[in-house]
Amino acid sequence: MKTRKYAHVKDSYNESPPGNNNNYSDERGDDYVLDGTPALMKNFDNVPKPFESGSTPLLELKNIAKEYVDDRGKKIVVLNGINLSINHHEYISIVGPSGGGKSTLLRIIMGLETCTTGEVLLKGEPLKGKVDPHMAMVFQSFGLFPWLTVVENVEFGLESNHIPKDERRKKSLNIIQEVGLEGFENAYPRELSGGMKQRVGIARALVLDPEVLLMDEPFSSLDPLTAEALREEILKVWSNRLTTPDVVIMVSHNVEEAVYLSDRVVVLSHRPASVVKEVHIDIPRPREKRDTSIYDYTDQITTLIA
Predict the structure, then answer these.
(1) Secondary structure of the chain in the HEC alphabet?
(2) Which of 62, 246, 294, 301 has the highest local Cβ count within 10 Å?
(3) Cα(171)–Cα(43) distance, rounded to whole angstroms?
(4) Is 178 exposed, middle or buried (0-12, 13-18, 19+ CB in 10 A)?
(5) What is the pLDDT of residues 63-114, one digit of tens each?
(6) How many CB atoms lie within 10 A of CB 219?
């Protein structure tokens, strides 16, 4: 397992504690967080390319199919014969029509749902429908426990893994600082803005040191500036070879976002979903958002979805 040492992940935020009115999102909120968010970092040169063909993939999906039976006994096929091989240090995005089974596929990879047929393999070993400790997931709807504070939400997974109390608290406080939420450790979700809630969700996933980070439309409910800042946060963490995660798999409806972030974009068809095409994004890192190549890939992928 790689060590956790997020170099320069923490933004340069004001470290003074929040005010006494307990309404943190009004006091400092996303504007406060974004003021310290740096521009796209320029040290992606050392990011390795995915392993060459022939090496053992980190993650494999083999003939994944998923069927439901509705209340009237009618069979609904959601996924049909999904095959995907993911190498070490890849950023993969999954796009496709709404309601096509993208989130279901992500939940199957995580082990939150079982597939009807097929199997998921991690390092060549089948996962057998169980939640794997080497994976963590960031949910679209934040998925925070409203009765727990920020630090309690972050350390929840560590508690489930029977990590000693002192160790999990120390680890949780460190990652909270790294994602720019220092000073909000004892805040409740109702006191946070949307962007800050998603930072808690990201911290809760990263504190587990996952080899594979799964994200289900993590930026879709955020305002554009907050979403942009969090994209850069994820790229910083993923690009550091000394830290986890090794692989990021993201579901997105934003094709331009997927192109900008990814090494590969997997396009799914309408339900029952199958892989239409895997588009390799051949744009050097660091990438410029206004690069015309991004728009070209975006147009190509959008045409495949339509």
Answers:
(1) CCCCCCCCCCCCCCCCCCCCCCCHHHHCHHHHHHHCCCCCCCCHHHCCCCCCCCCCCCEEEEEEEEEEECCCCCEEEEEEEEEEEECCCCEEEEECCCCCCHHHHHHHHHCCCCCCEEEEEECCEECCCCCCCCEEEECCCCCCCCCCCHHHHHCHHHHHCCCCHHHHHHHHHHHHHHCCCCCCCCCCHHHCCHHHHHHHHHHHHHCCCCCEEEEECCCCCCCHHHHHHHHHHHHHHHHCCCCCCCEEEEECCCHHHHHHHCCEEEEECCCCECEEEEEECCCCCCCCCCCHHHHHHHHHHHHHHC
(2) 301
(3) 26
(4) buried
(5) 999 999 988 889 999 999 999 999 999 999 999 999 889 999 999 999 999 9
(6) 24
Tens digit of each residue's pLDDT (9 = 90 or more) over 179-224: 889 999 999 999 999 889 999 999 999 999 999 999 999 998 888 9
Half-sphere exposure of 233 (CA within 13 A, CB side): 31
CA dist., res. 235 & res. 250, Å (int): 12
pTM of the entire structure? 0.80
- Please report where in the chains the tokens 């893994």 appear, as a residue: 161
